[in-house]
Design goal:
With about 100 residues, the protein is mostly helical. It is built from six helices and no strands. Belongs to the PPR family. P subfamily. It comes from Acorus calamus.
Length: about 100
């Protein structure tokens, strides 16, 4: 997702949504790339929407996802959400460096 590295989050999101129409379904690497892109761009709401989609698909967040989210939540000053996220990661046994 080169668009994310260039800061073109909307372009990356458009391609992400088009993938299924092309018969390409996102894997954890694709999800984590998108998640990190949203977090780096400061778009925590898009990141959380993506997390919700992942959960609906039965996907578990991994250390990379938790790390990206915790970093973004910390930068956004959302300490209550960050505490919940850390508790969730411990409940499922995922350890990460924030």
């Amino acid at each position: 997702m080169g668009f994310l590295k260039m800061g073109k989050v909307e372009s990356a999101l458009e391609i992400f949504h088009d993938m299924e129409g092309w018969g390409i379904f996102p894997d954890i690497v694709t999800y984590n790339t998108m998640l990190r892109g949203f977090c780096d761009a400061g778009d925590l709401e898009q990141a959380l929407n993506l997390v919700e989609r992942m959960r609906k698909e039965g996907r578990q967040l991994d250390a990379i996802a938790y790390s990206a989210l915790s970093d973004a939540m910390g930068r956004a000053g959302r300490m209550g959400d960050l505490e919940k996220l850390m508790s969730q990661s411990m409940e499922v046994g995922v350890q990460y460096n924030s």
